[in-house]
Amino acid sequence: xxxxLLNDLRAALSLPxxxxxxxxxxxxxxxxxxxxxxxxxxxxxxxxxxxxLAWSHDxxxxxxxxxxxxxxxxxxxxxxxxxxxxxxxxxxxRAAALTGxxxxxxxxxxxxxxxxxxxDSAALIAAVTLLAEGEQADPYAALRTLAEGLKVAExxxxxxxxxxxxxxxxxxxxxxxxxxxxxxxxxxERSAPRSPARVLALLALGRPDEAFAEARAGDLHSxxxxxxxxxxxxxxxGTARTAADG
Length: 246
Known about the structure:
Layout: H1 7-13, H2 33-45, H3 49-55, H4 59-68, H5 72-79, H6 86-98, H7 104-118, H8 121-133, H9 139-156, H10 162-173, H11 177-190, H12 196-204, H13 208-217, H14 236-244
């Protein structure tokens, strides 16, 4: 449950993208270190990665925020001293995927194996989602990979993850457009504003202008949707995010 001291911040973060202004966000005064980390977690969830970087000292959270904006090098630096585990492996795999590294699928598979071993359902769902992004040339293989994530969610009694659903929508859309759009609608309904899931769902629904508006507002790097073959919007912000990756 969110700390009452963070209620105003949560309200500002959860605004729809049309009313959201990241520059207006501020950390409430007098927070403890734990409360500041909770604020950073909220910022990352609601698509304000720059605020998360300003407020967090947690290496994994900071790495995740760097990856949202396409800063793979700084993300890897954050992880340099961290012990090997499923979540660290997953972040390293996402960093590799954002840079187009050839070993990205291998790293994602390693993250999946670690998540299975550790019984980390959230990491496992994220790992199969990342793996399936790299399997789009063979939609049936990607569907089999994603099925594990859907099964894990069912076992732990959770709704299907919106990011997984958004990737599933693109995968299904390669085989059956109507089915893919039905799944994309579910992903959109469950996704947070300015999140990768929201951007991917809108792209699957054929609404690129809305998708790119969400991406710009959330400082989301174009590498997050590169597997869809959708273009990078030709705006100064989009150009900056592409440059940050290389």
